[in-house]
């Protein structure tokens, strides 16, 4: 139930601000931007939600500072660090693949990695603010950025196929 309000706001934002604008630009732009929006919505779901329900309580818990020792869990052998590293990389691979396809990404490696890093930094800074049960970690920031690099590598690998598909959609316009 707490998530419903967040998803309603995301759906309303999509419907009111993006849907018609992207539709007018053609099926290719519509598909890429909608997929990217859905992807970012899922990232929000797994990392920050519920946001709106948590807003009244943002200042009601102590802020846990970011762990600034890279791979401390790996070095200490704590927890399921391998799973966390793999999941963090997988989470941002779609960013590295989809962002260059958007008009914002303009297919540049450095731009894609920079914005993937910024997204991850924003999530890591906000997590402990929104919930007293979440923490932020420099390892997550590093592995998320590596995931973006891996996603960009997949973008480069599949660029001919991707552009062929998008070209077919553009031709239907």
Outline:
The protein has 173 residues and is mainly alpha-helical.
What does this structure look like?
The model has no long low-confidence stretch (mean pLDDT 90). This protein has 173 residues and is mainly alpha-helical. It has 6 helices and no strands. Helices cover 71% and strands 0% of the residues. The longest helix has 34 residues, at 138-171. It has one domain (2-171).
C-alpha termini separation? 40 Å
Apparent shape:
flat
- Secondary structure tally: strands: 0
Class from secondary-structure proportions: mainly alpha
* Succession of helices and strands: HHHHHH
| Major β-sheet annotation | none
User: Count of helices?
Assistant: 6
- Give unreliable regions as ranges: none
Strand portion? under 5%
Round the mean pLDDT to the nearest integer and report it. 90
Using brief descriptors, characterize the structure shown.
173 residues, mainly alpha, 0% strand, flat
Would you spell out the secondary-structure blueprint of this structure?
Blueprint: H1 2-24, H2 27-47, H3 72-76, H4 81-98, H5 109-130, H6 138-171
Helix pairs in contact: 1-2, 2-4, 4-6, 5-6
